[in-house]
Design a protein that fits this description.
alpha+beta, Deoxyribonuclease I, Chain A, Immunoglobulin-like, 6-stranded mixed β-sheet, 9 helices, elongated, disordered C terminus, phosphatidylinositol-3,4,5-trisphosphate 5-phosphatase activity, IP5, INP5K phosphatase
Length: 449
């Protein structure tokens, strides 16, 4: 289950709550993956430079919301105001590989990143998946420029060997502030149709729908029905369309589309795929806007999908687990084994993480798999972690194996307990007792006075 968000946040700070946006209050099964595409994230030079050095406020915000629920930030990419974040459940980490990011500038003839696309691709259980967050040129008259820019973004190449081109991925998700408008109809007709919830009257004049009828490369993209109000342009903190002097005509600028490669091949061959041949399918479960969010003049749009995959990869590259009881009173051991074809490196490491860790660099401590190795045989290897690095307070943790060659976590242990340091607890209790005695003595002195 994949939940995809697109939102032009208009340089605003995160809202107080995103429970409904992320469907965290849903009674159904939890999501396996969140894909969050933002446009117009605050990119004033001071903000942008600080965000390059540290995580930006939006990334921190979503990590704070999702990490306690068992999601980690798998990857992210930012180009000025464009930001793309992907969060996944821990259980899927060993089966997500070959993660690559890229961006394409289209503003100012390709020299400026205020418009363009940011992309993350990966292998998910052996299937190639690509996510593309775009911000295309604005204004009614720029339809051709929007199409030209999107074609340029599609031509973007990832760095590395044997990585498919964008359109060669098994599934490609295309979303963002695509800025297509409603042509021909006047503002009064558009607003009246919206007020009467007769959205279908406007579909034929939606510029993206019109372009899909003419442009062959767009016809391969699928979109759910636009059964929600146009998401642009609103007065801030309201559900009232633009009352400024410009009185912008409402439009479905914020969209989510997808393309399944096997369906395109099927259409080209005019054959019939059997169930055995179809290894991946995408089902749209809902496609809605969220009117309650008013921090910008756009309303966020979400698509919830079911991805049905026949796993081409079913075993983790690395299996690992803690040896014996762990505490900070002694050095501890980690057992791990890798599949024969695993491309190990001297720069691989095993990290100790809290179960609510936020991303791959959010470790408590780590051990180098070569420098800290203490034994090796055909069944596996052992590395150690120093007692000095183990948290005294204990708690629930996981171990993760990070592959330098693959730039991702390729193995994760089951959650396990680290016992509190009894020596430290005894010392702390003694300190607390002494502190309480002093406070009591002082109180008695005050009463005597």
């Amino acid at each position: 289950r994949l939940h995809l968000v697109t939102w032009n946040v208009g340089t605003a700070s995160p809202p107080p709550d995103v429970t409904s946006l992320l469907q965290l209050d849903s009674l159904g099964p939890t999501m396996d993956m969140y894909v969050i595409g933002l446009q117009e994230v605050n990119s004033r030079i001071t903000n942008f430079l600080s965000d390059l050095a540290f995580d930006d406020p939006w990334s921190i915000f979503f990590m704070t919301v999702l990490s306690p629920l068992g999601y980690i930030k798998l990857s992210s990419i930012r180009m000025q105001g464009l930001l793309l974040l992907i969060f996944v459940k821990h259980i899927h980490l060993p089966f997500i590989r070959d993660i690559h990011t890229q961006y394409t500038r289209t503003g100012l003839y390709g020299y400026w990143g205020n418009k363009g696309g940011v992309t993350i691709r990966m292998s998910l259980y052996g299937h190639s998946i690509c996510f593309m967050n775009c911000h295309l040129p604005a204004h009614m008259e720029n339809t051709e420029q929007r199409l030209d820019d999107f074609e340029k973004i599609l031509e973007m190449q990832f760095e590395g060997e044997n990585i498919p081109s964008t359109l060669d991925h098994d599934v490609l998700f295309w979303f963002g502030d695509l800025n297509f408008r409603i042509a021909d109809y006047g503002i009064h007709f558009v607003r009246e149709s919206i007020n009467n919830k007769r959205y279908s009257l406007l579909w034929d004049k939606d510029q993206l729908n019109m372009a899909k009828k003419k442009e062959a490369f767009l016809q391969e993209f699928i979109e759910g029905p636009l059964q929600f109000k146009p998401t642009y342009k609103f007065d801030l903190y309201s559900d009232v369309y633009d009352t400024s002097e410009k009185k912008r005509k409402p439009a479905w600028t914020d969209r989510i589309l997808w393309r399944v490669k096997s369906l395109c091949q099927h259409a080209a061959k005019e054959g019939q795929f059997s169930e055995e041949e179809r290894t991946i399918s995408v089902t749209l479960n809902n496609y809605i806007s969220h009117m309650s969010y008013g921090i910008s003049d756009h309303k966020p749009v979400t698509g919830t999908f079911g991805l049905e995959l026949k796993p081409l990869v079913s075993d983790p590259l690395v299996t690992l687990n803690p040896e014996g009881e762990w505490s900070a009173e002694h050095d501890v051991l980690i057992n791990y084994s890798a599949v024969p074809e695993f491309p190990s490196s001297a720069w691989d490491w095993i990290g100790l993480f809290k179960v609510t860790f936020r991303h791959a660099n959010d470790y408590i401590t780590y051990a180098w798999v070569e420098d800290d190795e203490i034994s090796s045989n055909k069944d596996g290897k052992q590395v150690y972690m120093s007692a000095a690095e183990i948290p005294d307070v204990g708690g629930e943790f996981v171990l993760c194996y990070y592959s330098n060659n693959l730039q991702s976590i390729v193995g994760i242990s089951q959650p396990f307990q680290i016992q509190p340091n009894r020596t430290l607890i005894g010392r702390d209790l003694t300190k607390e007792e002494n502190s309480w005695t002093r406070k009591t003595d002082n109180l008695e002195s005050c009463e005597e006075f």
